[in-house]
Amino acid sequence: MQSETQNKVQGAQVVGRVAELLRIVGRAPDRGAVLSEIVTASGLTRPTVYRLLNSLAIEGLLDHDKATNTWHLGPEMYVMGAVAANRYAIEDIARPSLRRLAEETGESAFLSIRRGAETVCLMRVEGSFPVRSFVLHEGVRFPLGVASAGLAILAFLPALEIERLLDGEESRARAFGSGHTSRAILENLHSIRETGYSVNPGLILEGSWGMGAAVFDPRGDPAWALSLTGIEQRFRPERQQQLGRLLLEEAHRITRELGAGPRRHALEK
Question: Which among 67, 91, 107, 143 could bridge 230 via Cys, Cβ 3.0 to 4.6 Å?
Fold first, then answer.
């Protein structure tokens, strides 16, 4: 009995490690990820990582580019994603909203999804303004509370969950800047609840601004976010209200189409 329990624990551990490796490789969709980078990010030993990567490649879940010695998501991941897309049709629903946002504002418009403690950018539509911010692109991941999409989602989660997600302040501030302490993020969340939309005033990259609004799933939880990014001069205070109104209109439109409604959570005093 004890052996069976141990096998279950070990099996779950392997699944967790495989999932983490796939996420790490997925964070570098264009250039791919090198072995040393994956080892550092995963915290696993080099032999363990190398063995798991090769096993995933045999199954088609990863692809190894021998010319550059980099690892990429494999063809089987594409097939799985295409099949799953039929169940999660958010991209088809959100695409018209992204186009309207890009056309009306001239800024680049994005759709991000919450995945655990992170947001992942799913889609973008480029705006007409010739100068752009390149902080956000398809496949990029940020912790919740970092970037406008993650802030917009985090603001409407329960207080206890927010507290848990904001743990690890030192590593977050070290990776993304001093504007990402727990205190700074909590102050930002209060402002988001008042206006309904988030503002990221160049906290990740100086001069690169963003704004976001949450989209709610049928249970009333913030599961996605629309966002706009651009240079600081395009996000002056006098224009923020206009951009925020447009973001909220489109976010509410998608939420209604999904048959959902926001379940607003207040911070505990």
Answer: 107
